[in-house]
Amino acid sequence: MLTKPGIVISTTDYDRLYIMLDKLPSTEATVRLADELERAEILDPAKMPPNVVTMHATVMFTLLSTQKSFTYKLVYPQEARSAELLSILTPVGSALIGLSVGQEIEWPLERNRSTLVRIDKVVQ
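Structure (tokenized):
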């Protein structure tokens, strides 16, 4: 697996995500998200660059293995009620948080597979 790129998360997203995680049972998805939060640089929301994926941002990304591009709004699990909304607890959702445009990350999928994800655009 490739080295994970640096990520930045606002104090607001960091705090809200940890509150959510504290209320959920430990699963592969929650552990994966907690690991991402632990490696993040935490910034004041006013200092967050506009090209970084935050909660409720719309992100366009490409799965480099297939060259398929997707556009989703990153949301909390209880908000993911339609096809254009992506839960933070999905493998790709937790991979996206904190990345900025142009960054790539290798992320595990089911059945011992992985994919390389590239951030193409972020709309706050």
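The mean pLDDT is 94. The chain has three helices and seven strands.
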